Amino acid sequence: MLTDRRAFLAAAGALATGLTTQASTGERSSDRGNGPVKKVRAIAFDAFPIIDPTPVAKRVQSMFPSKGDALLSAWRTRQFEYAWLRTLGGTYTDFWQTTRDALVFAAASVGLALSDTGCDELMQTYRELKAWSDVRAGLEMLRQAGIRVAFLSNFTAGMLDAAVENSGLQGFFEAHLTTDRVRAFKPDPRAYSMGIKAFGLSRQEIVFCAAAGWDAAGAKWFGYRTFWLNRSNQPAEELGVKADAVGAGMQELLKFVLSG
């Protein structure tokens, strides 16, 4: 069983780095040079800097008051471990199915008899999520500054579409860069390379905005300028790289990308 998340990520990152080639990313060798820092022209967002996931935790707690914390911890851990294992094992399934599989396992691991109906109810919460309260104003400012934005996420397109519609954010984002396109979850470089191909820009013209420390590390391994939007004040992962900047909300992200 994978119990050391950081060691697993470090190993995955080393493997991913070894597999990265110019052909797979579509990037010129000069894009990773040590020349002047280029102006930010686009931001690739993970889902959770934009989308508030707390309703999932609230639904779990309301359904299982005595074991909610244990179920949440097991579900979140197995959710990402399954994603990484499926990528490394070449047996990709989309994030919706991966999340459901993780939930079934997590419930069994903490001794809960989760019915199909209960599983459906918890999964449905992912289609009811909305944006954080500071997102719309931040996106408006980015649009005024001419900075393009898109999701680069493990989420399926359907999950992202639902959140955008629930939040009334239609028209802000370019086509979703879901990992379903490359059948590899982050931190595999095939996932991060979607930003370069979709935006038609160099790595240094793109900022990747991560919600999790491991994702910030993965984006740095890939070579993106990286902002960690750390809303829950988590410690940085010990993976040999650090985000270029860290903040707790959209205002800090705006300061970072608009200061150049």
Describe the structure.
By secondary structure, the protein is α/β, with parallel strands linked by helices. It has 2 domains: 174 residues, HAD superfamily/HAD-like (Rossmann fold); 74 residues, Putative phosphatase, domain 2 (DNA polymerase, domain 1, Orthogonal Bundle). It is built from 11 helices and 6 strands. The chain has a 6-stranded parallel sheet with strand order 3-2-1-4-5-6, with helices on both faces. The longest helix is centred in the first third of the chain and has 22 residues. The N terminus is likely disordered.
Overview features:
260 residues; alpha/beta; Rossmann fold; DNA polymerase, domain 1; 2 domains; 6-stranded parallel beta sheet; 6 strands; disordered N terminus
